[in-house]
Design goal:
Radius of gyration: 20 Å
Strand content: 5-15%
Shape: elongated
Number of helices: 6
Order of helices and strands: HEHEHEEHEHEH
Number of strands: 6
Distance between the termini: 52 Å
Structural class: alpha/beta
Largest sheet: 6 strands, mixed
Length: 195
């Protein structure tokens, strides 16, 4: 009788260990999504705008460049599909290059098509462009719920300093929706690195 109860205890402990590990991983991912580490923008070689909803990330990236954070903005411009007004706005943003800052500096806006229309595809394409131009530091601009996943992917792929910030005017996306969508993406980024 004792060997059987010993096996049951061992099975129960193993099950609890697995469930505990899953719970800790889930809570860590949820924390990363809901309470991301956001960097204060400092001088970098390029600002990368990760594609997304029509929020103020594009305006904010340009503002950061105009106040001297960078002289180049890389904008992910996935293939058109879906919202035509959003595609038209991004096209207009991309065609408006170079931009002259108030202090007279030229700010180049370079738009690129991601390798695949995902965060991983944006990361690999932007990293390749950064290497081709010998950029040593990058600042990514995205929305608050995407900060941790963007950071994870770029830290996997880019050799230099990686800063990530969100926009001053957040999306109206609810915390629940972001938690559901981004937690899955965060776990995927952890399990399957982009590079």
């Amino acid at each position: 009788m004792r060997p059987r109860s010993h096996r049951r205890r061992a099975a129960l402990l193993s099950t609890l260990l697995v469930l505990g590990t899953i719970a800790i991983a889930g809570l860590s991912a949820a924390r990363a999504v809901l309470l991301p580490r956001v960097d204060s923008p400092t001088r970098v070689e390029a600002i990368v705008v990760v594609a997304g909803a029509a929020d103020d990330r594009y305006v904010y990236a340009r503002h950061l460049a105009e106040i001297g954070v960078a002289d180049r903005i890389l904008v992910s411009q996935p293939s058109p599909g879906g919202d035509d007004s959003y595609s038209a706005a991004i096209d207009a943003y991309c065609e408006n290059s170079p931009v002259t800052a108030r202090d007279g500096r030229r700010i180049e806006i370079d738009c690129f098509e991601p390798d695949v229309s995902t965060t991983e595809g944006e990361t690999t394409a932007a990293t390749r462009i950064a290497r081709e131009h010998d950029y040593e530091s990058l600042l990514m601009v995205t929305y608050w719920g995407h900060v941790s996943r963007v950071r994870m992917y770029f830290e996997q792929c880019f050799d230099g300093p990686v800063l990530v910030t969100d926009t001053p005017r957040p999306l109206s996306r609810s915390r629940k929706d972001a938690l559901l969508h981004e937690t899955g993406g965060y776990v995927k980024a952890f399990l399957k690195p982009a590079c």
